[in-house]
Amino acid sequence: MEVISFSMLIILLFALFLISLPLLLFLIQNKSHSSKNTTMFPHGNMGWPIIGETLEFLKLGRKGIPEKFINDRMQKFSSKVFKTSLFGETMVVLCGPEGNKFLFSNENTLVKGWVPGSIRKIIPSAGNVSTNEGAIKMRKKLQTSFKLETLQKFIGKMDLAAKEHLTTHWDNKKEVLVFPLAKNYGFSLVCQLFMSLDDHVEAAKFYDHFAVLLAGLISIPIDLPGTSLHKAIGASNILRKYIAEIVRQRKLDIAERVESVPQDILSHMLLTSDENGQFLNDMEIADRIVGLLVAGHDTVSAAITFIVKYLAELPHIYEEVQNEQREILRSKPKGELLNWEDISRMKYSWNVAREAMRLASPAQGFFREAITNFTYAGFSIQKGWKIYWSTYSTHKDPNYFPNPETFDPSRFEGNGPAPYTYIPFGGGPHMCPGNVYARLVILVFMHNVVTRFKWEKIFADERIIIDPLPKPAKGLPIRLQPQCT
Ligand SMILES: *[C@@H]1O[C@H](CO)[C@@H](O)[C@H](O)[C@H]1NC(C)=O
Ligand SMILES: *[C@@H]1O[C@H](CO)[C@@H](O)[C@H](O)[C@H]1NC(C)=O
Ligand SMILES: CC(=O)N[C@H]1CO[C@H](CO)[C@@H](O)[C@@H]1O
C-alpha cells in the first residue's frame, strides 16, 4: 500500500514537473534577460523561510567563532557585501573597514539605527531612537550624562564598589567563579550609579527579573506563552513599572528639596533637563533606563571576565599591569579613592583591556536600516533592508591584526590599529555612548584586583561561547593567591 502510494507520488510529481517546465524555462530566461540591465543585488543565501540563516549564525557564535559566518560568505559571494536572512529580516552584511566607514559616515542620510524585533518588543524605545522629538532630546540628555565631565564624579563611588565587591566575594576564598561574579558586580554597579539602588535584597529581586529579560533579548521573535520572548516582555513590564516609580519619586524629591537628592546619573539627567524633565513621561524614561541597564552591565561584565582570563594566561602581562597599578597606589595618600588623574595614568592597563575587547568583543556587531535605495560597491541596496556589520570580522582579520589570535597589547601603542578596524563600541553618531563608562569601570576594577590578588585558571583549555555575549563555557573558575602591596 505504502509502496504504491509512494510511486504514484513520484509519477505525479514528475508529471507536474513536465507540465511546468516551459513556464520555468520562460521564467529563468526572462529573469536572466532582465537582470542584464537592471541593478544588481548583493549575492547570498537566504536560508530557510522566516528563520533564514539565523540558526547557523547563532550556532557559530556558540562555538566561539562568529567571524566564520562572515568569512565563509565573503569568500563565497563577495569580499565587500553579501545578502542573508537573519532574525526574520532580509539582511545585507557590509564587510571590512570600508563597510564600517561607509555605515558610520552615512548615518541618517542613507542608514539609521535598527534593532531586531525581539529587542523592540522588550524595550520599546530601542526601536525609535531618532523619530520623535522627545526621543531625540532624551538621547542628547543621555549623551551628556555619559560624558567624561559627568562620569568622572563617580570614579570614587566606582572604586568603593570594587573594593566592597572584592572584600565580600574574593577575600579569604581559595577559588572563585569569575563570570557570575562579574555579572553580579556589573549589575549592582549600574543600579548604584544610575539610580542609587544600594539595597542588596531589593537589587537581587530586581536582578531576577532582569535575567529573564536578558534571556529573551536575542531570540526568534515569537511572542507566545512559554517562549523566552514572552517571558522577557513580562519581566520588562515589571522592571519598567518599578523604575518609573523611582523616577516619579525622584522628580518629587527634586521639586521639594534639591540638596538631599541622591547623587546619581538619574538625578543628573533630571536636574540638567531644560524642561524640568517633562520631555518624556516617567514610563518612557524608565524604558530608556532599562535599555541602559542592559547595555551597561553585560558588556562591562564580559570585558572584566576576559581581562581576568588573559591576565591568568599571560603572567608577564599581569606583572606589567600590576607594576603600573602599584605605582599609582603608592603615589596616593593612603585610603584616598581613585580619581580621573589616576585613571589617565593607567595607559598600559587600558591597552590590555582594549586587546581583551578585540579578541572577545562584548558586542558581536550592530544593525542599521537603509532609509533610501542606494548603491554600495556596485550592488543595489533597497530602502527598508536591514544591514549588519560585525566587530569580529575586522578584529580577527590578519590584514589588520597580524597573528590575530595572539594577545598583544602593544597593538594599541603609537597610532594604534588602522581606522575602522577596531570597533568594539561601534562608530559614527550612533557610537555606543557607554564607552567612557566602560573605560572607567574596567580600569577601576583592574586596579583593585591586581593590587590585591594573583590568580590562575583551573581549566587550562576552557572553551569560549558567544551567546550573544562572549563567555567562558564553565564560568572561568580561578585559584586565588592574595597579594600584599
Ligand atoms: C515609539 O514611537 C511611537 C510612534 O512613533 C510612539 O507612539 C511610542 O510612544 C514610542 N515609544 C517610546 C517608548 O518612545
Ligand atoms: C527603490 O527601488 C525599487 C526598485 O528596485 C523601486 O520600486 C522603489 O520605488 C525605489 N524606492 C525609492 C524610495 O526610490
Ligand atoms: C544595454 C543597456 O541598456 N545598458 C544600460 C543599462 O543601464 C545603465 C544605467 O542603469 C545604462 O547606462 C546602460 O546604457
TrEMBL record:
<keyword id="KW-0408">Iron</keyword>
<feature type="binding site" description="axial binding residue">
    <location>
        <position position="432"/>
    </location>
    <ligand>
        <name>heme</name>
    </ligand>
</feature>
<protein>
    <submittedName>
        <fullName>Cytochrome P450</fullName>
    </submittedName>
</protein>
<dbReference type="GO" id="GO:0005506">
    <property type="term" value="F:iron ion binding"/>
</dbReference>
<dbReference type="GO" id="GO:0004497">
    <property type="term" value="F:monooxygenase activity"/>
</dbReference>
<keyword id="KW-0349">Heme</keyword>
<feature type="transmembrane region" description="Helical">
    <location>
        <begin position="6"/>
        <end position="28"/>
    </location>
</feature>
<dbReference type="GO" id="GO:0020037">
    <property type="term" value="F:heme binding"/>
</dbReference>
<dbReference type="GO" id="GO:0016705">
    <property type="term" value="F:oxidoreductase activity, acting on paired donors, with incorporation or reduction of molecular oxygen"/>
</dbReference>
<keyword id="KW-0503">Monooxygenase</keyword>
<dbReference type="InterPro" id="IPR001128">
    <property type="entry name" value="Cyt_P450"/>
</dbReference>
<dbReference type="Pfam" id="PF00067">
    <property type="entry name" value="p450"/>
</dbReference>
<dbReference type="GO" id="GO:0016125">
    <property type="term" value="P:sterol metabolic process"/>
</dbReference>
<keyword id="KW-0479">Metal-binding</keyword>
<dbReference type="InterPro" id="IPR036396">
    <property type="entry name" value="Cyt_P450_sf"/>
</dbReference>
<keyword id="KW-0472">Membrane</keyword>
<keyword id="KW-0812">Transmembrane</keyword>
<dbReference type="InterPro" id="IPR002401">
    <property type="entry name" value="Cyt_P450_E_grp-I"/>
</dbReference>
<comment type="similarity">
    <text>Belongs to the cytochrome P450 family.</text>
</comment>
<keyword id="KW-1133">Transmembrane helix</keyword>
<dbReference type="GO" id="GO:0044550">
    <property type="term" value="P:secondary metabolite biosynthetic process"/>
</dbReference>
<keyword id="KW-0560">Oxidoreductase</keyword>
<dbReference type="InterPro" id="IPR017972">
    <property type="entry name" value="Cyt_P450_CS"/>
</dbReference>
